[in-house]
TrEMBL record:
It comes from Microbaculum marinisediminis. Keywords: Oxidoreductase. This is Aldehyde dehydrogenase family protein. Residues 16-480 form the Aldehyde dehydrogenase domain. SUPFAM superfamilies: ALDH-like (SSF53720).
Length: 484
């Protein structure tokens, strides 16, 4: 059995407390994972502070970038192992683990190296009040120890989006992967341990959230900033913790994302794109569409076609290339999805596709599969219209005009993403400012340059992430003024 341990200041450390990571595909044990002990967190933070405020944090950017580039190349060479690890933890297909997580994640380190080299330090001359001349210059310094707390849905990519900016700016990063997906980050840690990145600059600590590693890391006074992706309720708990010591937080949280389908839509594209946006990764992407609003004139056509598409989606064929779906990440997550779908009929809605656990007649029946689901007929205040399902579940409702469509789309505490399906260019350009979300896609979904900024509205996020914004979050401007 694989044993996944903690990496603390260059040393692999086991723990008396372990748990078994279960495959959501077959119910088999994937690995035994060692939950970090409090002492390991103290040691990781102490080593991290020494690195960030010592040689690692003060070396010239080019020297640090050279070390990270070398690590990134070594990580890319392990991409097949990373894909296997992701497949084992999540049950997703090889094609998806490779294209959506593995290659994108390993490429991110190079992307952040390039970006960091373009960051400019500022300087200026000035005349002081006493008539003297001065000059000031501002440089960005590392913040110190950055806690990187990631979710399970795209494990390596989400973690790399935090680690790459933190490390390139000279911080020490403490990686806390989700308890559901410990494997790929452990491989990343093996590669870092064998690289020139100094021991103290990176630690990997496994464990859970509350009363466990996640809470202990974020509570630690030696942690200078926290970057977190996960549920809004967890984000709120972490913000309360971060208030002690006034530590900065950066958060990407959930979504209950709408799509608007107008009468002038290219229906072929909207169905294909709508299918991917709702069911890709079994609906476990923060940007997945969960609420679709269709102009009444095209509503029946959209619903009929989407039901046909949902019923024909292939499930649980990991070696199949192209679109298919795997299980949900765990049985407990399936229980959450199922319990939300189970509210549909009692609250006045109707389920037209899915709404059930599939039966395969083989080992997959021990997995956490759930059928792609299309529901209709719910009011805006119904439970499933308010709560994020984070599963393969779409609700479709009609609208009569643009104002109503916008009002329906904005009727949510979340504000992460939205999609507009329309061939009217003026409409596609005039609608986004009316939508209270951080990212709008037009006639597409999830095509993304990972250095473009993202800021969730409402309970979907705190602060701006990605690209230069992440480099800024992971650093601290320091101004030096000299009297000439
Ligand atoms: P989660 O909030 O349950 O857990 C996320 C991480 O936080 C895990 O590593 C967990 O162990 C840790 N954690 C839990 N409680 C903690 C605590 N009290 N203190 C410190 N750490 C704690 O989220 P999840 O179920 O892993 O992920 C799914 C959620 O993530 C969904 O809501 C989804 O929308 C969101 N998400 C958002 C984005 C985005 O870009 N906005 C991207 C991916 C996922």
């Amino acid at each position: 059995m694989k044993e996944l341990k903690n990496l603390v200041a260059g040393e692999w450390r086991g723990s008396a407390r372990t748990w078994d990571k279960i495959s959501p595909f077959s119910g088999h044990v994937v690995a035994r994972v060692h939950e970090a002990e409090k002492q390991m967190i103290d040691d990781a933070v102490a080593a991290g502070r020494a690195a960030a405020f010592g040689e690692w944090g003060t070396m010239p950017m080019r020297a640090r970038v050279a070390i990270i580039r070398d690590f990134a190349q070594k990580l890319s060479a392990r991409v097949d192992d990373l894909v296997e690890a992701d497949m084992a933890d999540t049950g997703r297909s090889r094609w998806q683990a490779s294209t959506f997580d593995g290659k994108r994640a390993t490429g991110l380190f190079e992307k952040y190296c390039e970006l960091a080299l373009t960051l400019e330090n500022r300087s200026n001359n000035f005349e002081g009040e006493g008539g003297f001349q001065g000059v000031w210059l501002t440089q960005r310094r590392p913040k110190g120890v950055i806690a990187c707390i990631a979710p399970w849905n795209v494990p390596l990519l989400m973690m790399s989006l935090k680690l790459a900016p933190a490390l390139v700016m000279g911080n020490a990063a403490i990686a806390k992967p989700s308890e559901e997906t410990p494997s790929s980050t452990t491989i990343l840690a093996e590669v870092i341990a064998a690289s020139e990145v100094p021991d103290g600059a990176f630690s990997l600590l496994h464990g859970f959230g509350r009363d466990s590693t996640g809470a202990w890391i974020t509570e630690h006074p030696g942690v200078d900033a926290i970057t977190f992706t996960g549920e809004p309720a967890t984000g709120a708990a972490i913000m309360r913790t971060a208030a002690t010591g006034l530590r900065e937080v950066s958060m990407e949280l959930g979504g209950k994302n709408p799509a608007l389908v107008f009468e002038d839509v290219d229906m072929e594209r909207a169905i294909e794109g709508g299918m991917r946006s709702a069911f890709f990764n079994t609906g476990q992407i923060c940007f997945c569409t969960e609420r679709v609003y269709v102009h009444r004139s095209r509503y029946d056509e959209y619903v009929d076609r989407m039901v046909g598409v949902a019923d024909s989606i292939v499930m649980g064929e990991p070696e199949r290339s192209g679109f298919s779906i795997g299980p949900l990440v765990s049985h407990s997550h399936r229980e959450k999805v199922k319990s939300l779908v189970d509210t549909v009929v009692p609250e006045g809605g109707e389920i037209l596709a899915g709404g059930r656990i599939p039966e395969f007649g083989d080992e997959r029946d021990k997995g956490a599969f759930y059928c792609p689901t299309v529901a209709v007929g719910l009011d805006s205040d119904a439970t499933m219209m308010r709560e994020e399902t984070f599963g393969p579940v779409m609700h479709v409702a009609p609208f009569d005009d643009e104002d109503e469509a916008i009002a329906l789309a904005n009727n949510s505490r979340y504000g992460l993403g939205a999609v507009i399906w329309s061939q009217n260019v003026a409409r596609c350009l005039s609608l986004p400012p009316k939508l209270r979300v951080g990212h709008v896609w037009v006639n597409s979904w999830q095509i993304r340059d990972l250095s473009s900024p993202l800021a969730g509205v409402g309970i979907s996020g705190v602060g701006e992430q990605f690209g230069v914004r992440s480099l800024e979050f992971c650093s601290q401007p320091q101004t030096i003024t000299i009297r000439l």
